[in-house]
TrEMBL record:
Pfam families, per database record: DUF218
One GO CC annotation: plasma membrane
Name recorded for this polypeptide: YdcF family protein
Alphabetized InterPro entries for the sequence: Cell_Envelope_Assoc, DUF218, Rossmann-like_a/b/a_fold
Ranges of residues in domain DUF218: 171-317
Swiss-Prot/TrEMBL keywords: Membrane, Transmembrane, Transmembrane helix
Transmembrane regions listed in the UniProt entry: 27-47, 59-86, 98-120, 127-152, 329-348
GO annotation (BP), single: peptidoglycan metabolic process
Keyword Transmembrane helix: yes
Record has Transmembrane helix as a keyword: yes
Length: 351
């Protein structure tokens, strides 16, 4: 029965991806398949160990798995904290640059709670039991967020690889803008433009009359529209200006896509196929927005500096949660029920 469920989930993922791979539910299906399969395999191994001649073998295996899981959490937390300080040092003290630092502190705090349960269990069993209940109650919504995060990041990596591997010719390549340094593009934006140029050359080499759309408006702190700076950079790099179209009014990713589609339509490309180029951490969300705006095609990701990636992917994850806020609020509220009940019980015991 369990393996039939896994097969059904895998089939659902395959059918959905075949119809349109720009759906986050595919990542949810695949994560469920891998997670449930891992639990099933672990259960089979536990049965084999329990049937062995050494009665302590299963206990030692379980203890080892728990210790490895805690050590992995500690490493994740410490690495995130160090990355947070690196972001503050290199990118400035903006709230968005605090994400990996805050994430690391939360992970380490949860690890500290696990250690507290173990320590109190040696000396104060009643206190340890209460802390254990709190550990489970807090861990339930965190487990939900962790599951969605793994599904998002995991499928983002799969989608990025597949889109690059099987990229088809397109009518236009849309490169999404980012911040500028004066009238020059930043290294991050330059990496997008390089990736866009590769997509342009590849599509034209396969016989399509492909053009590249530089998409980006002018921010309050920018001296020129991003689209203008992007076009200048590409021309300096050797791209024929006649192959470039400019969209210089957008202020968000969704507007990038909508306004670029209008620019393409003005040049005779209406209802065509597009390749949207951004950075790797943003590619899946850009693809999801393409589907929402009825834009046919796929998204490609340019390589991002390693130190920048953790905070950027956390920011994208927060955006995904917000874009599906009704569903996430409902599920998080359900996951928080044990915590609310425990809080009510604790308050009642003090009365």
């Amino acid at each position: 029965m369990a393996w039939a469920l896994l097969a059904l989930l895998a089939l659902a993922a395959g059918v959905t991806a075949w119809h349109d791979p720009r759906r986050l539910r595919i990542g949810v299906y695949l994560t469920l398949v891998i997670g449930l399969a891992s639990i099933g395999i672990a259960g089979r191994v536990a049965i084999l160990l329990d049937d062995s001649d050494d009665p302590l073998r299963l206990a030692w295996a379980l203890l080892g798995a728990v210790v490895l899981a805690i050590l992995a959490l500690v490493v994740l937390g410490v690495a995130s904290v160090f990355n947070g300080f690196a972001m503050l040092r290199r990118e400035g003290r903006r709230p968005s640059n605090l994400l990996s630092l805050v994430f690391g502190v939360v992970v380490l705090a949860y690890c500290a709670l696990i250690v507290a349960v173990w320590w109190f269990d040696r000396n104060h069993t009643d206190v340890a039991l209460v802390l254990f209940f709190w550990l489970v109650a807090i861990g339930t919504p965190l487990a939900y967020l962790a599951f969605v995060f793994v599904a998002f990041v995991g499928y983002g990596l799969v989608y990025g690889w597949a889109a690059a591997r099987w990229a088809r010719p397109v009518d236009a390549v849309i490169v999404l803008g980012a911040g500028l340094m004066g009238e020059r593009v930043t290294p991050l934006l330059a990496s997008r433009l390089d990736r866009g140029r590769q997509a342009l050359d590849r599509s034209r080499a396969r016989g399509r009359d492909t053009h590249l759309i530089c998409s980006g408006g002018q921010g309050a702190d920018e001296v020129v529209p991003e689209a203008v700076a992007m076009a200048n950079h590409l021309v300096e790099s050797g791209v024929d200006r006649d192959l470039l179209w400019l969209e210089d009014a957008s202020t968000s990713t969704e507007e990038n896509l909508q306004f670029s589609a209008r620019v393409a339509a003005e040049h005779g490309v209406e209802g065509g196929r597009f390749a949207v180029v951004t950075n790797d951490y943003h590619a899946l969300r850009a693809a999801l927005l393409m589907r929402r705006t009825s834009l046919d095609g796929y998204a490609l990701g340019a390589t991002t500096a390693r130190y920048f990636w953790p905070s950027a992917i956390l920011r994208e994850f927060a955006a995904i949660l917000w874009e599906h806020r009704r569903l996430n609020v409902a599920l998080l509220a359900l996951a928080c029920v044990p915590m609310v009940l425990l809080l009510v019980r604790s308050v009642a015991s003090l009365a």
